[in-house]
What does this fold into?
Amino acid sequence: MPSRSNCVSFANLGLKEPILRGVLAAGYETPTEIQSNAIPKILAGAELIGLGQTGSGKTAAFGLPMLDKLSGGPPGLRGVIIVPTRELCVQVAENLRVYSQFAGLNVCTAFGGVDIGIQESAFKRGLDIVVACPGRLIDHLERRNISFDQVQMVVLDEADRMLDMGFMPQIRRIFLRLPQERQNLLFSATMPKEVEGLVNDFLPNAERVQIGTRSQSAKTITHRFVAVNAHDKAEALERILARESGRVLVFVNKKLGCEKLGNALKRAGLPADSIHGDKGAEARYSCLQAFSRGKTRFLVATDVAARGIDVDDIELVVNYDFPLGLEDYIHRSGRTGRAGKTGRALSLVAPMEKRLFAVVQAHLQGREIPHEAAPPGRGYGMPKRREGGGRRESGGGGRGRSRGRSAATA
Ligand code: AMP
It folds into this structure.
């Protein structure tokens, strides 16, 4: 885990005994920095904005005090956690169930793409906390499957991603329907101005707990880049993957490119798959399961789809397409180097992406991103003879160059 706090134990933070047993069951020994900062404040009733790096342990930072405060109270929906994706929904709920197993609280999920009746039946069996995506939460409210009357605590997780995914109007609708008397918590890796606007409207007096700044990336991650022509990327990737023995997450900027690159790697016989927003909820879920169980080791993903990936031992993150902004670079690279492990981020930088790269380079805590020698093969890091056609700069493999048996272009 990154940034553990010195000399603080979970017991010192003021958590009740059943919750401490849950923490033990999760295998956590020491609180992370954001946990030791946030937990006592939340227990004391403060409204809070947690600005944490990806993988900073923020789920327990809000989850443990929420469980602590709600345990022992009357049954009924008292805690609402709003997350942007189904994957994150499942992951946060799984974590909360581990932490709450001795506290007798029922944690349910609500996300789209699956039968709403199944979720409704689960609520009827007992519901103290719901972890929900905004659209489905509104559906349940409108069908009166749930009521906000007893809600005391609300968490908005990954607020910046909610914004990216266009959920801000739904979030505002939900907030307007919540009881006036409640404790609000908001977590976000970054604070775009629209999120600041939401904070001003709904959490004006919230305290901020900041772990790092928007331009910081975890120190456990080593950053490298390879200069490569756009049309040589697929082949470069194939060679990079061939020398990896662990899990690799490959980022592309577009859904179509994502699918194509994943298919090309599969056709080349590599244990690869792709995940993006056009895949159905079931397909995305089974893809993530296969990746976390090690059945597929190479996962090609778009930024949005990658939000739900909570796999601690991703050894390498590859930027096949360079991200369009610094924040995406930090989010992407934060998928590795988690839970105390070291990780690597490798970017394939085409000439057209040099400017984007320079922005990241300039902000990355002054740490230079060294150039890495390209794996042996044709045309890496050097200008290449153009073979017909125009330039192809972004978005996935199978990009039409026939170069013998290159797997990713096959
Ligand atoms: P999160 O930022 O909540 O997604 O957490 C990132 C990873 O760190 C997850 O796998 C958590 O289970 C793990 N984690 C969270 N808190 C701790 C802790 N105090 N000690 C060890 N691992 C933790």
